[in-house]
Design goal:
- This protein is of the alpha/beta class and about 270 residues long.
- The chain folds into 2 domains: about 110 residues, Nucleotidyltransferase, domain 5 (2-Layer Sandwich), CATH 3.30.420.40; about 140 residues, ATPase, nucleotide binding domain (Nucleotidyltransferase, domain 5, 2-Layer Sandwich), CATH 3.30.420.
- About 40% of the residues lie in helices and about 20% in strands.
- It has 8 helices and 10 strands.
- Helix 2 packs across helix 8, helix 3 packs antiparallel against helix 6 and helix 6 packs across helix 7.
- The C terminus is likely disordered.
Length: about 270
């Protein structure tokens, strides 16, 4: 049985996925920190434990993410875009546009019918366009990251957050607090600001349905719900928590394909001999 692993070394979290012929066997995640190779090892160990797979059973490892070059035990490395293309289409084969919102980045991609990346755009270098802004807003309001989802469900009148950068947006949050706005309404306003930015980014790649939403921020149901209201019914979100692992899963899928290709080449050479 061919078993492969994909490792996505992100700026905030490192994710790993173990894949077998029957599909996804397990996942693992840890904070990236500054020792990227160690983070990759920890995430993979967690995924192996969840998969009930021994380390020596892994036949091929592919890495992706901003720290993909630092994974010393990789057999292959691939770009974020390639990994997300394969990962999202693993769940939703008809995906044509991908929105990926992580802790430090936001990117939109438009794919061809065969899954190749036709165009992509990244957010401006500003935290107001990423999940970090939501996390920072939550902490300023006295809430933990895990409380963001439940908190926004209590919002009755979201307040606008229109700042074009994290510094200005934070000033707006401070003003809303001083004016007596409810934390739930401020948090919802920050989320709507992020959604507005994401839709603009998708328009820049000339988005086409079907849309697939991934990244750590999609663990908040309100994000997906409001985006679905804006984009229509052709919005897909992997089952929680797999939306955070599509990059790692895509890397594992490519590893499976590479392993199959190497095996086929070996059998062809043997037959020719």
């Amino acid at each position: 049985m061919s078993i492969t692993a994909g490792i996505d070394v992100g700026s905030t979290y490192t994710k790993a996925a173990v894949l077998g012929p029957g599909g996804l066997l397990g996942t693992g995640m840890c904070k990236t920190g500054f020792k990227l190779d160690q983070a990759a090892s920890r995430a993979l160990d967690t995924a192996l434990e969840a998969s009930d797979v021994a380390p020596d059973e892994i036949e091929y490892v592919a890495s992706t993410g901003h720290g993909r070059n630092q994974v010393s035990f990789r057999d292959l490395q691939l770009t974020d875009m390639t990994a997300q293309s394969w990962g999202t289409r693993h769940f939703f084969p008809l995906t044509r546009t991908v929105l990926d919102i992580g802790g430090q980045t936001m990117k939109a991609m438009r794919l061809t019918e065969t899954g190749q990346v036709k165009s992509f755009r990244l957010n401006d270098k500003c935290a107001a366009g990423t999940g970090a802004f939501l996390e920072k807003t939550a902490r300023y309001l006295g809430y933990e990251i895990e409380e963001i989802g439940p908190l926004v469900e209590y919002s009755r009148e979201p307040v606008p957050i229109s700042g074009v950068c994290a510094v200005f947006a934070e000033s707006e949050v401070i003003n809303h607090v001083s004016n007596g706005a409810q934390p739930a309404d401020i948090m919802y306003g920050a989320m709507e600001s992020l959604i507005e930015r994401s839709v603009r980014l998708m328009k820049r790649v000339q988005m086409e349905p079907e849309f697939t939403l991934v990244g750590g921020i999609m663990r908040f149901p309100t994000m997906a719900r409001v985006l679905r209201e804006q984009l229509g019914d052709a919005v897909r979100v992997p089952e929680e928590p797999l939306g955070q692992f599509t990059g790692a899963i895509g890397a594992a899928v490519v590893a499976q394909r590479r392993l199959h290709k190497l095996g086929t080449a070996g059998r062809t050479t043997a037959a020719a001999g």
